[in-house]
User: Which sequence fits this backbone?
């Protein structure tokens, strides 16, 4: 479904109503756009329409500057009292992603490798960490690394991080095994945060999930990528995966096997986000794969 | 994505061209239809568009009788020299399915259980078998069973089966571990045939795949549901699944574990077909899940 | 690993100590037994040895009657103050299993089909149910069915069930979607009870796990087979499996997809139990596969 | 099952006979060894016994030098006319592994990361490659890299590689997406070679398996780790894994998704080999997990 041509992607979330697909696809068609991907979903339990349309800009007769205004005319009314229900992304506006890590390297290394391999279409202007351990990994891939120690107050550390995210015009912050809880204030200032949790939530929320899993004697473990909300480990789930374990696996084995699941799940979630394939609403996500 | 209301489902396969989605969704919208599901795919390697649109008939202003004619006006031209590129299904026209089995009961029992549980929206007017072993299973579920022995020539047995399929107006024939090869003549007369093969094709085509798998020492086995074409085990693949095995598994264990995969894979494929979610083209399928 | 010859299976759980494997395998060897399967596990976190040895009785020079006494001499001391640490099973003593169901048929039907197919080596003298719905399923497979209504007090119903389990000399009670909680008194009188829970425990314990899963927006669902203890859904886990779901799946879809996982997981757990491959200790199980 | 104490691991493959487990475990016990892991398998189809016993050397009363001679007395006769049926590994003799790669970095990077993370207990004295592309990756992890160009004859390149493997006393050569076929002569001189093939063999042996898979329209793809034998892609299979794909996946998507499977499968196989958990016989493997 990938295309190397420049495309526009429209994401829309609004009260369910008749004719949305027709009106939007017609709009694209009448302006000469060739739809390369279109998907939508109606959640009847909350009467909500969620959709995604991607089209080629090549023969489209509206420029990037003209498009939002023209689109607003037909799409804004769909939002009703909720206000503007859509957002628009152009494939040549590359999202800017920051990764916040701690001491564990597997998720960071995996994301950087995928970025270099072209799997993740993003700029990574800066890596943050409350420890210096992973500075060499960042250096290997030529990405600036900023140590944000937690020595002083957490408020200060968050303020510094926030300033860096703004300075580097970061669109998405990925917590790649950053083991600290972000404050509500931080999330209000910068809400676009994704986290990888090392259990199949809602099982084993909180600290040391592999120890919890071992103590409970489960036969599968898992990992969960989710958007971060003020309530710990309770944000909208983007992606989950599990793997089998047995009585032979110690906590160390669970941690080792879990790492493979964590990096796969996080990478999938980041990729889906960068392709503008995820819509969160309430505590849920729609993932247009 | 299910709806209990009456719906129409349009499937279309035609040369790729601009505006198909817009024109079709517009057609539905202008006649008052509420689209409940819409998906499409462009296979750029062969310049082909494949799509599926399902909408509610409740407030639609064309009757079942009027719809084909009105649709033809806008959709027929999309086929170009290939001819009519679409077909239409109404949810109140329940497909008629026949199951052809042999001696193994697991796939037959599973399909009949799912049918009774409401997972498979179909009529099953008749079960065919070249053996009498499974007559009691058919009887348990109250489905007529016809023994079609292979004692005489295969030509005669196929002719009898064909007559039964026509008499019972069967839309789809499911080979549920029917271990015979159908003749080219049969398939020309009745091409809507689905089969479950007990390996992850193209590995281990032909006879005794579990013996082949054991001899090769594989660590995964699988099953494949596919449409039947004259070339053995080479038809378009609908669904596949695998499961892990180890050196401890004998051929008997592979057969036992494989049965669970076979019945899951076949049931999924039959359900997808009955929901008109599969489009085959060349040696491939698009499955709109 | 299966053998059609008569075998003895020794299960042992005792404080970890040197030489257990040597002494036990030597005992079998010196009496002429041919070991066909042997596995063991040391849980160092609680200093416990857990083992399983299966050998052919054909050329063994001790009879079924003589064996326990001879074995006790070398194996009883291994238990120390805990008392006798072993139990012995002969393959020609077929375990007697009762199934307790409610209204849902998928697990019952699956177990009965596997029993008839030879996958579950057991006698099933009686099926219990608090509803009459599944009597025809029991009848199809020729198994006696006893309706134990919950109209009066639960105490009476449990007393009747208990009497039936004793009358039929039942070794294992399988709760195949029996949706009631068993009393502590019942479990004290009959502790060999296995249950299938329709979530990947510890997530979504309690009632309506698929509704809980849908509300949480998870991307995987699962099922858990476990031994029943007085604390609800907290007994030792035997087997778990998960399957992927998406935003398109309604609660009804989760229930449908979950059924396939439930019956697979329960069947695996029952089979493992019948092969004497499970040792529970504390809140955990060792499963010798 | 891991232990940080020094252990000895005995692997044995011989004609099946009574008392092997008893005699070997007795030998270990009588010399004061504490067995930490013991597993065996009888392949009745070829009357072969395959076993693995690992015990702690701490209180064992034979030194590393004395052990082989003492063991030979009881274990050599088990081999009969086949000759010595066993081999012995000590945990403080760290295996020496060389990795031979080409241009693709994912498997190399993954193995080096796992090595650094302590998942792979091995020395990696040298990395070979017929291209210079991955020299920086080797440098990042501080491993010597040797470019062995294929410009001249393949015979010369193989001779140079062979000399390097001998010079560095390499025990195992891992082909991590080395896309060349090794000559029979090379394999005779250095038979301990493991390869990762990017399909679930025996499907899609040979070149460009993802292109083959796409052309066939499969719904699962996979990867296979196997020991290399002169017949291409036909050696004993160690590990396999599959992942789902759909009609939306282009060849490029299959390659991308396949990379994740390849590196997981190869890493598991290398780890199992380094833990001396694999016994190959004929075209099969026993993997003691």
Assistant:
């Amino acid at each position: 479904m990938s295309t190397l041509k420049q495309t526009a992607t429209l994401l829309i979330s609004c009260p369910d109503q008749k004719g949305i697909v027709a009106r939007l696809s017609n709009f694209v068609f009448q302006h000469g756009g060739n739809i390369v991907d279109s998907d939508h979903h109606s959640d009847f339990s909350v009467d909500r329409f969620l959709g995604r349309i991607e089209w080629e800009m090549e023969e489209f007769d509206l420029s990037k500057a003209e498009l939002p205004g023209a689109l607003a005319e037909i799409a804004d009314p769909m939002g009703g009292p909720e206000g503007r229900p859509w957002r628009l992304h152009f494939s040549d506006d590359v999202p800017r992603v920051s990764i916040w890590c701690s001491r564990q390297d597997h998720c960071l290394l995996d994301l950087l490798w995928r970025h270099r391999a072209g799997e993740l279409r993003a700029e990574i202007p800066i890596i943050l960490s409350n420890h210096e351990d992973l500075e060499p990994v960042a250096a290997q891939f030529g990405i600036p690394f900023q140590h944000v120690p937690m020595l002083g107050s957490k408020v200060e550390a968050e303020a510094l991080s926030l300033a860096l995210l703004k300075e580097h015009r970061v669109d998405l912050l990925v917590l790649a095994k950053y083991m600290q809880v972000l404050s509500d204030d931080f999330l209000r200032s910068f809400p676009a945060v994704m986290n990888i949790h090392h259990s199949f939530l809602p099982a084993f929320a909180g600290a040391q999930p592999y120890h919890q899993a071992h103590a409970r004697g489960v036969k599968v473990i898992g990992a969960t990528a989710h958007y971060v909300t003020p309530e710990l480990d309770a944000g909208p789930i983007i992606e989950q995966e599990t793997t089998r374990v047995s009585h032979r696996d110690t906590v160390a084995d669970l941690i080792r096997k879990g790492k493979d699941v964590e990096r796969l799940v996080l990478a999938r979630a980041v990729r889906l986000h960068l392709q503008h394939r995820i819509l969160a609403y309430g505590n849920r996500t729609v993932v247009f794969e």
